[in-house]
Amino acid sequence: MARAVVLRRLAMGPRTRAQLREAVLSKDVPEPVADAVLDRFTAVGLVDDAEFAREWVRIRHRDKGLSRRALADELRRKGVDPELVEAALDGADGVDGDDERAAAEALVARRLPSTRGVDHPKRVNRLVGMLARKGYGPGLAGDVVRRALAAERDGDDGTDDVEPLG
């Protein structure tokens, strides 16, 4: 039964060992049996939390623009070991400060046109709030929004004479 549960879950898509263990245990499978089955799936490479974390970081950052913090939180909630989370974030396909800034800038650039006509404080709040929901800190979010609004206003790259947020 444990094997069938794991196979069904994996057929739906990649899962962490913790997610699979929880699914197996929810079917009243004894813990030693669940662990033995998961050990076997891990040994043959069908369950690999490190690979899961690397792919999760790559895809969620690319498709959703999530920050390092948001990605780490999601992976921890899925039961990935904190060391594997850090390795995935710092690895070849990981997310560094430049990647985060670029993703935040792209998110704001996509959203900026839909906020035209909204008064400045509300516009700032909406854009900063959108970045905050993606896990970006207030400093980076505020800077990216401020620069984007200045660039839009001045028709330049937004690096000179940046207007305060307030």
From TrEMBL:
Pfam families: RecX_HTH1 (PF21982), RecX_HTH2 (PF02631), RecX_HTH3 (PF21981)
Record-annotated RecX third three-helical domain positions: 99-141
Keyword field contains Magnesium: no
Main location: cytoplasm
Superkingdom field: Bacteria
Residue ranges of domain RecX second three-helical in the record: 48-89
Alphabetized InterPro entries for the sequence: RecX_HTH_1st (IPR053926), RecX_HTH_2nd (IPR053924), RecX_HTH_3rd (IPR053925), Regulatory_RecX (IPR003783), WH-like_DNA-bd_sf (IPR036388)
Swiss-Prot/TrEMBL keywords: Cytoplasm
Intracellular or extracellular location(s): Cytoplasm
RecX first three-helical domain: residues covered: 2-40
HAMAP family in the cross-refs: RecX
Family of this protein: Belongs to the RecX family.
Function text: Modulates RecA activity.
Protein name: Regulatory protein RecX
Annotated organism of origin: Aquipuribacter hungaricus
Gene: recX
